[in-house]
Amino acid sequence: MAEPLRNKREAVNHFVKKLLDVAKGQIAKVLIFGSLAKKNIRTESDIDVFILYFGDEEKILDITSELSFETALKYGESIEPFLMSIHEFNSRKNSSLFLREVLRNCEVIYEMSKNESDMLEAQDYVDLAEEFLTYAEGALKRKEFRAAIDQGYNAIELAIKALILIKGETLASSHGGIIQRLGRLYIITGEIRKEIGKNTRRSLTIRNKARYDPKAKITEEDATSIIGLAKELLDALNKKIKTKTS
């Protein structure tokens, strides 16, 4: 191995080791891309490192900035971290030319286990679902039924996504696909009562009317039923997560 390449490898290995020492539970994957991954590196080339993370972006930014500077002092190499949350990555990986290029020409340095990654991603969806549920309940109290329905359905769909992830399955890309996957994984198996499938479909139809039809008749009963379904799904979800992590 030529000396410049060896030094860059040592630098990136040092950077990743230090990163995992302080933030392993938040790092989903670390890739190198660009010239080092393509093995056409020059002495003056930066080291491009793609980091997928969970949690607080500001915290990861602070950590990687400090470690990048420390690595530069120790090895004389410039680590250029590119940060992206796992949720943004999953939503963009099939449509972004940049991400397709990174994935086509990269080297995986570290990857969290799928089970741990799925559980962390599911918990993020739980937290967001509970936040949307709070918004929906507030809107219902103010008699803002369209908003209550919209935010309540968001909570429903996020809870379903989490339920899919804790089974180790991938998420569907459409609203209907997500509901179908819920049916296959939980309703056919009897883990969740059959009526939830029908009620989720009904909730999606009502939500679409509330969001897109200015003349739609939107009732308090509609909003209340959707919020009730969101609560039921979140309750079932939290029980399953507790069982898996106990």
Write the layout of secondary structure elements.
Elements: H1 3-23, E1 27-33, H2 35-38, E2 47-53, H3 57-75, E3 79-85, H4 86-92, H5 97-104, E4 106-111, H6 114-141, H7 145-165, H8 175-187, H9 195-212, H10 220-245
Which superfamily, in CATH terms, is the homologous superfamily of the largest domain?
Answer: Nucleotidyltransferases  domain 2
As an assembly, this protein is single chain
Helicity level = 55-70%
Provide the structure class: alpha+beta
Q: Any idea of the CATH class of the largest domain?
A: Mainly Alpha
Largest sheet: 4 strands, mixed
Computed Rg: 22 Å
What percentage of amino acids are in beta strands? 5-15%
Q: Which architecture name of the largest domain does CATH use?
A: Up-down Bundle
Uncertain parts:
none
Shape: elongated
Give the strand line-up of the largest sheet. 3-2-1-4
Kindly identify the CATH topology of the largest domain.
Four Helix Bundle (Hemerythrin (Met), subunit A)
Q: Based on DSSP secondary structure assignment, what is the total number of beta strands?
A: 4
Would you mind describing this structure in some detail?
It is built from 10 helices and 4 strands, in the order αβαβαβααβααααα. The protein is elongated, with a radius of gyration of 22 Å. It has a 4-stranded mixed sheet with strand order 3-2-1-4. α1 (3-23) packs antiparallel against α3 (57-75), α8 runs antiparallel to α9 and α9 (195-212) crosses α10 (220-245). It is α+β, with helices and mostly antiparallel strands and 246 residues long.
Compact description:
Helices cover 67% and strands 11% of the residues. With 246 residues, the chain is an alpha+beta fold.
